Amino acid sequence: MKYNLFNIKITINEILISIVLSATVILFIKYVDIIVLGSLILIAILYYKESVLIPGIIIIFLSATGPSVEKARDFITIGGLGVLVFLFLKKNGFDFHRHTRIPAEVIYLVAYIFISIIISTLFTGINFNSLAAFVRLLIYFLLCYILFSSIADTKMVQKYIISLLIASIILSISVYLEIASAGISNFIIEGQLTRFAGSYGNPNYVGMLLLITISLAMSMFWGSKVNKGQKIFLWLILLNNIIIMMVINSRAAIIGVLLSVSFILYNMNRKVLAKAAIISFAVIGILLLIPAFQDLLSLFIRLDTVGQREYFWNAGLGMISDNPIFGVGPDMFPSKFYNYLPSSASYLVEIANNGVKPSPHNFILFFTSEMGVFGFVGALYLFGLFFYMGFKSIIRFKGNEPEYYLMAVTMTGIGIGVFFRSFYEVDGVLTYGYITRDLAFWLIFIIQIFIYQRGKVKNFSDKNAIVI
């Protein structure tokens, strides 16, 4: 069965404007005076509609990061949020009856998270980090609501997805530039793989974005109106993202992609899944007979780094043991980490000197160590609700609304991959409102909510669905 999911009706001008606005901020922010850039944003607000500005802002939020734009990042965030709030109020005003309703299940989740933060903060001692986390998350969820309320139909969903793909391409380009600058000869140094990450500087975040975009690109092949040119475009995106995934060498993201794509194939075409599995196992089995491939595989697996992560896991478990009910406080793991670090691992203190915040490398451990039992429940609640909505939508649309069925399968598959990754990485799920880290997954969550909400409508039929 084919699915009408790639009938792109976004004009070339809209795509070009989004890319130009994004590239201007990302590439030239350190050379552009704030007044000039502010003028460009004002002109954009006056002359271009939200269907252009919102995707462009998403691309900027996801891509404008790293040392080159670090000083301007706050301005970028404030400017982007300001534009989104302006567009929202221009469209809806302060008439709350006109505002998009959120499913009650999502409201309960958000309320629970905020209540958990408040309780943990009150009982662990009010401090700047926890208060800042609360305010930052409040602003972040406001951003998520504005993005959710902007989805009038599946056309905007499609633009969100394209924004994710464009952001992955921009970050990929920055990775290629980093490799070119460092030189191929530096790809392996002293028997260790060099992990390039482009402008972001964190290969694990890039892996999160690639996990999402590889799954999205794969699902597009089930579109009923995918022409040869679009298929070539999709293959190029897939090939590019797979190459970058290998270069950044994010193990959790790689396995997450395999789980996500396997779930999508299992629901869409099990024969293709079976063939892909057989071929993959056969090829890997043959390659394992080659000593050079064995050496390369050992470099990719990086077993030597697993021991380092035990220090972070043990620190998280130690905090939970000492503070099982309320944790150490929201956003307090980094400052408490060194109290649980043994002298044998004192070399990890260099992490703080390099400006990198330590984390327990496990999302559930992260929430639990900082907010105790409330955080543990909150972490499970978040993913539980995501999968609840996903599987309810899959059951609801299977056999009667193929467009929405594919959307539900794709978003749920991505959620499975992200859930697995969350056992090894914290960034990318919910880190108290850091937009660059978390927005990619929450765009998927927003789309999942949109699908679920549509599925609750009796006798629902959307003949104009043009998603992914």
Mean pLDDT: 80
**Which sequence of SSEs, written as H and E, runs from N to C?**
HHHHHHHEEHHHHHHHHHHH
Cα shape: globular
Biggest beta-sheet profile: 2 strands, antiparallel
Structural class by sheet pairing and helices: mainly alpha
In DSSP terms (H or I, runs of 4 or more residues), the helix count works out at: 18
The termini sit apart by 16 Å
Number of strands: 2
Q: Provide the low-confidence segments as ranges.
A: 2-12, 29-37, 463-468
The domain tally reads 1
Please bin the fraction of helical residues: 55-70%
Radius of gyration: 22 Å
Strand content range:
under 5%
Strand order of the largest sheet: 1-2
Topology, pairings included?
Blueprint: H1 12-28, H2 34-47, H3 50-63, H4 73-92, H5 104-124, H6 128-149, H7 154-182, E1 188-189, E2 192-193, H8 203-219, H9 228-248, H10 251-268, H11 270-287, H12 291-301, H13 306-322, H14 333-337, H15 350-353, H16 363-397, H17 402-421, H18 435-455
Antiparallel strand pairs: 1-2
Helix pairs in contact: 1-3, 2-4, 3-4, 3-7, 3-18, 4-6, 5-6, 5-16, 6-18, 7-8, 7-9, 8-9, 8-10, 8-17, 8-18, 10-11, 10-17, 13-16, 16-17, 16-18, 17-18
